[in-house]
Every structure is written in structure tokens, then in C-alpha cells.
Design brief:
Oligomer: single chain
Strand order of the largest sheet: 1-2
Number of helices: 3
Strand content: 5-15%
Distance between the termini: 53 Å
Number of strands: 2
Helix content: 40-55%
Structural class: mainly alpha
Order of helices and strands: EEHHH
Largest sheet: 2 strands, antiparallel
């Protein structure tokens, strides 16, 4: 029985990480919880969702270098490629409810 999955850098075949394997029951539970979370998210007012997304964008910005390095390694990119450059959440829309940035 597989207890973990190995994540390899496809360019170098170096081990990036190991992640626990899950059972069909665990996957089913996760899907059920995700569906419940989506209904909760959908019930939030747009302004509340926007506030939470802006908060998330700050967290991404705070950790963008680490996140970019993980993505580059996991996807097999090199740091010099455009896909390897860390984006900022500033590339995302910061439009507030009722505003248009077009």
C-alpha cells in the first residue's frame, strides 16, 4: 500500500517533497467539505468576499518569493523563465464593489 506520494522536479527528477496518500473515503470527505465551504463563500456579501480576497493577496505578496520558488521547483521551470518570476497580487484586480477598472 502507498502511504505517501513523492513530488519530483520534472526537469531534474530531484525530490521536492513527499505528501501523504489519501483513501477514497478521505477524498470524499474533502469534496463534501469543499462543497460546504463553497456554499458559505457564496452566501457572503460581495464586499466581504472582496475584503477576504484583498487579505489573501497581502499574504501572497508577503510570501511571494517562497511560493514562486516552490512553483518553479515543482513545475520544473528555471528561475530565469517568465513562469519563474514571482508575481505580485498587484497583477490581480483590486476593484472594489461598485467600481470598474476597465
Amino acid at each position: 500500500m502507498i502511504h505517501e506520494h513523492r513530488v519530483l522536479n520534472p526537469a531534474t527528477e530531484e525530490l521536492v517533497a513527499t505528501v501523504p496518500a489519501t483513501s477514497a473515503a478521505e477524498v470524499s470527505t474533502a469534496v463534501t467539505r469543499a462543497a460546504q465551504a463553497q456554499r458559505t463563500w457564496a452566501a457572503l456579501a460581495p464586499a466581504d468576499r472582496a475584503r477576504l480576497l484583498r487579505r489573501f493577496a497581502v499574504l501572497v505578496d508577503d510570501h511571494r518569493e517562497r511560493l514562486a520558488r516552490l512553483e518553479v521547483t515543482e513545475a520544473g521551470h528555471t528561475w530565469a523563465t517568465p513562469a519563474g518570476r514571482p508575481p505580485t497580487s498587484g497583477t490581480c484586480s483590486t476593484t472594489r464593489p461598485g467600481e470598474w477598472n476597465g
